[in-house]
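Follow-up to my earlier ticket, as requested here are the two runs.
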Amino acid sequence: MNNTNQLPQTEVITPKILYYGTPVILLNTLNEDGTVNISPISSSWALGDCIVLGVGLEGKALENLERLPECVINIPSPSLWENVEQLAPYTGKNPVPEHKQKYGFSYQKDKYAISGLTPAQSIAVQPARIMECPLQIEARVKNIRIPEHSPDFAIIETQAVHVHAHKEIILEGDHIDPQKWSPLIYNFRHYFGLGHQLGKTFRSET
């Protein structure tokens, strides 16, 4: 019989956010004038070549994606957390939506300049990539849906068409070396990197 005294105790809580540890993404979309908007987001998951994103309804990203369904999903490393945070208090929407004003957001059009990041031309989509990010995924939007139960954000389904990777994290041609690559993690509004490797799944090819 298990000794229940040794098991962790729990309490029911009501957290304001559920960012329980997901990679940060810098989402590049195209503005009306051909410039690029960069949106830091922390809600995504991937399966096969499908990457699903969660974006706010009041941001510039959704507006841009509805007009031009193309984007670049840039995945920064932990060393870029300060660049990401430089983007955090700014929006590409002008005027700034009232909801964002309450949280202290300001309008900024040139997101590359404010973040200190470098544009790189994409192959198949119009928005430029971010050269400093070790992974840069060109993608096309396949579906945009606003959930009925939570109408404050949109679920964006995308299909990856090209994956760019820094040479130093590539292993055996088309694999990413997990010993050399670590995403920036957004953990309850704090930035983290990954810890030491604990093991690997039986399906790992490296």
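Run two:
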Amino acid sequence: MTSIAFRQAQAADLPAIIALLANDVLGQQREDASSPPNPRYVDAFKAILADPNQLLVVATLDDEVIGTLQLSFIPGMARLGAWRGQIEAVRIAEAHRSSGVGQQMFEWAIAQCKARGCDLVQLTTDKARPDAHRFYERLGFVGSHIGYKLML
């Protein structure tokens, strides 16, 4: 496995993050990889950076961004006031898929959740991503719930 570095995303990483988000069939339909970045991405980045319960992460190899994910730390009343770590917007550069980078990224993210006192880690994944489903199941995630979304 390749040794990957993980860090909080910086504004200079936005084009690479957006490109990763747009680099699949679903992302091509809902992301805008034009340059300069759509101002909505810039606003979202600023909001994430300002919120201590949000962490936008990049995985780098030799200073190249090859992966990204967003971690949200969510307080809750259920499960005796448990904190949850929510992992979203996971993407790995096409050239690095199936190389162990995703597993390293999740191990790092789960460690961050443990360090923040989370009692569980959860994620959502689109039904159209069967490869991702198999990957998450290999990591020990269980498809225990059905999720619903309402687009506004």
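The only thing I checked on run two: Residues 26 and 129 are 9 Å apart (CA to CA). Let me know what else you need.
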